[in-house]
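Input record, target 12 of the design panel.
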């Protein structure tokens, strides 16, 4: 029996989160050990833009030299989510959130990852794990803003 305090945080049980966390941690460790590069998803996505953009930011030498394997890694992230969603858990991924809210949230997160010099995977998994002060501050900021936003949305009664 899981205590209510814990079960409230993990309504689907703790195992999916535990296994997911282990897979993310193992994946980032493999990338780091194989390439000596931190596996931040926003940087990986940004490097793939060098295929279609002439903007100098996306065409940095290190991006261009490593974009092929970074593209494969990014495709792997998408494929892994698709396999889980469509094969291992069919019909389990639904949302009532309107498309414009998802798009708006995605744009804000994308802008935030650039302003914060990385995303939750880069800062949260790799940066905090390596005791980077910048990453610790970024992750603290992510958490405070996310918790505050969730509390505000709930208090206002905003529904999907």
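The sequence produced for target 12 reads:
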């Amino acid at each position: 029996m899981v205590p209510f305090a814990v079960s409230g945080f993990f309504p689907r049980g703790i195992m999916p989160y535990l296994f997911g966390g282990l897979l993310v941690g193992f994946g980032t460790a493999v990338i780091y050990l194989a390439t000596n590069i931190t596996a931040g998803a926003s940087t990986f996505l940004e490097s793939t833009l060098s295929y279609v953009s002439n903007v100098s930011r996306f065409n940095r030498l290190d991006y261009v030299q490593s974009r092929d394997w970074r593209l494969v890694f990014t495709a792997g992230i998408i494929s892994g989510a698709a396999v889980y969603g469509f094969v291992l858990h069919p019909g389990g991924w639904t949302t009532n959130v309107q498309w414009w809210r998802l798009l708006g949230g995605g744009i804000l997160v994308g802008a935030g990852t650039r302003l914060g010099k990385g995303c939750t995977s880069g800062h949260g998994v790799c940066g905090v794990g390596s005791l980077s002060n910048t990453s610790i501050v970024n992750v603290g900021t992510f958490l405070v803003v996310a918790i505050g936003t969730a509390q505000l949305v709930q208090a206002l009664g905003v529904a999907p």
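The first helix runs from residue 4 to 9.
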